[in-house]
Amino acid sequence: MESTIEEQFTALYRRHREAVERYVLRRAGPQEVGDVLAEVFLVAWRRFDRIPADPLPWLYGVARRVLANDRRAARRRTDLEDLLAIQPHRPDAGHAEEVAARTDLAQAFGRLGTADQEVLRLALWEELTPAEIARVLGQSSVAVRVRLHRARGRLRRQFQAHPAASIPTSTSVQQEVTHARH
Question: What mean pLDDT do residues 79-88 have?
Answer without folding.
Answer: 80
